[in-house]
Amino acid sequence: MSSRTELTAWQALEAHARDMQNKHMSDLFDEDDLRFAKFSLKSPNILLDYSKNLITEDTRKALIDLAEACDVESLRDKMFAGEKINRTEDRAVLHVALRDRTGEPLEADGDDVRAQVKHELERMRSLVAQVRGGDWRGYTGKPMTDVVSIGIGGSNLGPLMVTEALSGYSDGSLNVHYVSNIDGFQIAQTLRDLDPETTLFVVASKTFTTLETMTNASSAETWFLDKAKDKSFINRHFIAVSSNRPKAMEFGVAEENIFDMWDWVGGRFSLWSAIGLPIALNLGMEIFEELLEGAFEMDQHFLTEPLSKNAPVMLALMGVWNNNFLGRKAHALLPYDQCLHRLPAYMQQAEMESNGKSVNWSGERIDYSSVPLIWGEVGINGQHAFYQCLHQGTQIVPADFIGSVEPTVAVKGHHDALMANFFAQSEAMMRGISADQVREELSAKGMGSERIEEIVNHKVHEGNRPTNTILLQKVDARSLGSLIAMYEHKIFVQGIIWEVHSFDQWGVELGKVLANGILAELAPDAEVGAGHDASTRNLIEYYKKAR
Ligand code: F6P
């Protein structure tokens, strides 16, 4: 047995879950007028309502006992203090330092983190002002019109998601495009209508070795030199963001055009660093810094609020409750805001790359679930696609509903209609509709009893499906910063409770290594290695013959 399941707090929750299984949330609401007040909280820029979970005050207390037994608070403090809590990679975890506004000294591995962050932010300000102000000139003397960000995973998903989320605030002075896929279609389509004379590339890669990014960067360079001819012009058109300066320089990026990243920032937590440069180029540095401010506010909340009033902690604990004690193995993210349409994809990496692990801190296999499958889509579109399954399917999938009081762009009649759906869906998932209610409804419509009995079971909706409601005033830079930071800390807390290492990602390495080997075998004269399994070998041979 692993240590977590041996905890008294864990076992108390297992026993409590057996009692709760037979309860219905609808009754819990009917019995307690104060349920919303008890199970919702205000955090910076966000109202979190977690009352539509199958919980009582005893559940919350038992979950907090578990968080305490797992030392959540002391590990949180260690993270903020720059201790090497990423033990498998022997690194500090300091994305919070990237948005820290206190100015207090902070060291990691003997380096003055605060000074490093300040310096790179200053360089970002200067570059953004030059490019956006038209002072940064290309090789023919023209100002930039387009930025192409080349990166993948954490070097793409965050900046892309934020750029989309805040697109309503763009002044349109610089177009930003994102290329991540090694499928040549994406870069070809992106470059088709661009002009090398006015295009600035930002090659974002922490390692500067990622195959997809390097291949796309080389194609971008070829496209650029096709017209510019002279390699010395690259320094007006290529910027790099990386923790591997030598590799970026080897690629041909001028030293002064390289922005630093550090080992203490994980890729999926890096949008706050110069990895966020495309955001700042698109929206301006002021908006980027608002984003940092919003995240900082959430960091302070996470650091100082007691666990029961702490939004990331309660969000994490609801997830643990649903996953580990009620057996829910998936979790949906449902933004009711078109601007947040990339949020589920971004959170998939953040949550699943962080906590998709199956051994604990001692390297022993865990005997409980770590992260559930995270998936989702813009909620209102999902209603007409997969919500049927959320309402009546055999799997119960807890969901986060994310919406805003004010729309980014007000078009008469739209926002209330959107939000009516937002409120209705989670109410329906919680309350459901019983057989008797269905009978009553159909009979009121004049349906005969024989026909009613034929269809009644098909219309019954059991309800009791858990949801969290996350309400922002508006999707703007500040609230988005808070929202992302809230989820980052949720992931951190869950990683502690599951006792998994949230800040490495060694699972993705095997596929990368095999892909590099297979790439060599795809050369026309190369042999396909006998070491492959029969399926892989035959597929590769089929591909080589058929192409
Ligand atoms: O998918 C694995 C991964 O290592 C991610 O963690 C990372 O965000 C992504 O690849 C890109 O890595 P890099 O920034 O080094 O190109």
UniProtKB/TrEMBL annotation:
Cellular localisation: Cytoplasm
Keywords: Cytoplasm, Gluconeogenesis, Glycolysis, Isomerase
The UniProt record lists the keyword Isomerase: yes
CDD domains: SIS_PGI_1, SIS_PGI_2
GO molecular function annotations of the record: glucose-6-phosphate isomerase activity
EC assignment: 5.3.1.9
Superkingdom of the organism of origin: Bacteria
Enzymatic reactions: alpha-D-glucose 6-phosphate = beta-D-fructose 6-phosphate
Database matches in Pfam families: PGI (PF00342)
Membrane-spanning ranges: none
Record Gene3D superfamilies: 1.10.1390.10, Glucose-6-phosphate isomerase like protein, domain 1
Pathway(s): Carbohydrate biosynthesis; gluconeogenesis; Carbohydrate degradation; glycolysis; D-glyceraldehyde 3-phosphate and glycerone phosphate from D-glucose: step 2/4
Family: Belongs to the GPI family.
Protein name (Swiss-Prot/TrEMBL): Glucose-6-phosphate isomerase
Gene: pgi
